[in-house]
Amino acid sequence: MRWSRYFWYTSKEEPAEAQSPSHRLLLKGGFIKQVSAGIYEFTPPGLRVLRKIENIVRKEMDRSGAQEVLLSVLNPAELWKETGRWELYGRELFTLKDRNGRDYCLGPTHEEEITDLVRSYVNSYRQLPLILYQIQVKFRDEKRPRFGLIRAREFIMKDAYSFDTDEFSAMLSYETVKFAYERIFKKLRLKTLMAQASVGAIGGISSHEFVVLTDYGEARVAYCEGCGYCANAEIVSLKKPQEEQEEEKLLQEVHTPGTDTIEKLASYLGVPARKIIKAVLHIVNESKPVMFLIRGDRAVDENKVEAVLGTENFRLAEDKEVYELLKTTKGFIGPFNLPPSVEVYWDNSTYGIKNAVIAFNKPDYHYINANPGRDFKQEKFVDVCQVEEKDPCPQCGAPLKVSRGLEVGHIFLLGTRYSEPMKAFYKDAQGQEKPIIMGCYGIGISRCVSAVVEQYHDEKGIKWPTTVAPFELDIICVNPSDQEQKEVSEKLYMLAQEHGIETIYDDRDESPGFKFADADLCGFPYRLVVGKKVKEGKVELQNRHTGERIDLDIDRAVEEAKKLIEEDKK
Known about the structure:
CATH topology of the largest domain: BirA Bifunctional Protein, domain 2
Number of domains: 3
CATH superfamily of the largest domain: Bira Bifunctional Protein, Domain 2
Strand content: 25-35%
Distance between the termini: 25 Å
Number of strands: 31
């Protein structure tokens, strides 16, 4: 492909809206263009990367025995109502009505539709096991679309579904797809962790997610270097600590003006934050107040709160609501003299605390030396504490490490979560009807584009692995007005195509610095630089990943580049 004729436009300007490296570089490199918040177009080079990822995924899924289908984007509400998810899925579900008033949604996932397809044709154990998959566009009305393709409202996903007669067979399917995923991410050159995860809105028995560590990931991953435990932080259970051993002191009411944060209160009283009990008031389903109490040095994990409440429809109480309910202000909320409408939960971290600092719904005042049992009751203990570095590993007790991670794949063992309500049954050898055991398996195809860039970039631009690069080789003609350089460049370009190398030929009438900057930004694994050395019969081969540069005879240059490219792709 000649760059002068290719629809590819890079930018030297830093995109103001981009925070993550992948978002910034994909925009600057001209791989994607934003249409609206969380919605992106792929340009020709961006689509080349996307298609390469799709092809790797498709090859490995086919190799696993899965069969490709293509389901509809527009899903009728009736299917989702069969499983109860029309009401349960939440605000991320894009819904619409047709001209006749019939309800539809834009598919965020396809458990209902695939189950409907299978129940239409499968009725005997002889037709199982079965794994079906598709590569399809999905839609989710994300609360905070950000980081480009990392958290988008419209995205490309590979979703697969397994159908089995029993749990043992279902586990075999689960392991089969898990193994396929390991091969896929290895071929994409993505370094991933496999973490235990929540089943979330999908439901089911168990799940694992494949995570790429990056500061711009949405998930927090806790892992143990001792025993190998790895899990999404939201499901890591933190148990009650041992009861503190110290003599109970006299309860006192203390004037604490202006101490509306834990930091201010700890400084004012000269106590550590862990000796403070803070209260967090939520409003659930826009009506019910729920209070969580936790130690002052810990943070509430909203994903754990969602699990406790059984809904994602909750928010922090506003100042006006705090005053109407408790006649106080934020920073001075406590579990004393509460109206009956307020439900109270105590995080496990507060267990056994002695001589604590706690608010009691009086502005600018706190109790000091407050003790459970004597001064306040603790009844409903839950785990809503955000996991932190050095918390004990649930398996071996060693200190955990915690990092941010980007989920690129997720697998679920669903059981009969969808087959039972949708009556997807099969007849066993004795002619008895039984529900099909299901699994589902997703890979964020478009998200993988960002994940690769997150792991492969430097200050100059992207460093695409050869397996997914838009072009494997960039031929740069330093000075197109030099007849010898132009002739050699044309010759190498034609030869590279004959050798089956995916090549872009930078024949633009731009300065050498401009072309080199674009080559670094766009991340081609290899480049052949045709410059003044052609007079000596030489061109320069550069490796984007290692920075290595070697002079080659013109006649050997393409052949040597091909060897390196083929070696990279093994």
